Amino acid sequence: MAFYTTLNQVIVLFLLMGVGYVLTKSGMISSKTTDQLTTLLCYIVSPAIILYVFLRKFEQDKFNNLLIAAAAAIFIHIFNIIVCTLIFNKKTVKDDNRRIVSQFASIYANAGFMGFPLLQALVQNNGLFYGSAYNGVFQLFNWTHGILLYSGKVEKKSVAKALLNPNLIAVIVGTVMFRFSVSLPGPLYSTVKYISDLNTPLSMIVIGAAITQVPLKELFNDAFVWITVLMRNLVLPLSILFILHSVGLHGELLLCVMIPASCPTAGVTVLLAKLTGRDAAMPAKAMTLSTIMCLITLPFILSVMNWLKF
């Protein structure tokens, strides 16, 4: 994949983010509106797009690839957890809050809000199809390990939230429908498609709105946040790329796994900090800087893939 093709798609997404940034800065949308749009994306739009891409005739090779994508996503999250636990430990990072935020912000990528639009732009339906497996694995790890990392314990309600997450349910239902080639009636199919089409613009507008939470003058002066972003945007994705490539994962499937794995820090980094009573300033900085830097790092990683002749 050409560097400039990827860069062009990333620029389009950043322009959409700019719309969200300007709308928020000008007061045309409020933080309450952004929260409502986030809820709409998480609970309606994202499940709809997952369900939509599964509405296809069953093909055994695609089903096998879906399982491989899920296995790769599980490996990626376990690899990220091990590496970040070793690097951001109590000796290297004495401050408890910074250590936890750095681990979480490095481990978890914005696979939904940023990953899905990129997959849709670069790989179309197959990208969203395989990317759905990654998103399902992300939800499981986020609401179990992520909660454990932030709060020190996993409660039954967080496990239930992981298992009952609409995105995970959509993956399971969609997989069954795909396996048995189940189709939807015309009007219902069109409704699901129209809702799923909202994903890219709404996701980018929400991310752009979130960036306004951090004053730009305070964004670049924290060296520790830069280390976290370096891990999230470059070190972990490049390490994963060479590992997966070396074990024989190639072509479109590798691309569909690497795009979400190379995305910037997940917005839920800030959400969980707030939910567990931790300072949200550093998570917001990490998410914002990571998102801005992905304008450079994402095309670079995909160019490395092209160099490897993936």
TrEMBL record:
Pfam families: Mem_trans (PF03547)
The entry's keywords: Cell membrane, Membrane, Transmembrane, Transmembrane helix, Transport
Annotated GO biological process: transmembrane transport
Cell compartment(s), UniProt: Cell membrane
The UniProt record lists the keyword Cell membrane: yes
Chief place where the protein resides: membrane
A GO CC annotation given for this chain: plasma membrane
Transmembrane spans: 6-24, 36-55, 67-88, 100-122, 128-150, 162-182, 223-247, 253-275, 287-308
Topological category with respect to the lipid bilayer: Multi-pass membrane protein
Superkingdom field: Bacteria
Record flagged with keyword Amino-acid biosynthesis: no
Similarity comment text for this entry: Belongs to the auxin efflux carrier (TC 2.A.69) family.
Descriptive protein name: Putative membrane protein
Organism: [Clostridium] cellulosi
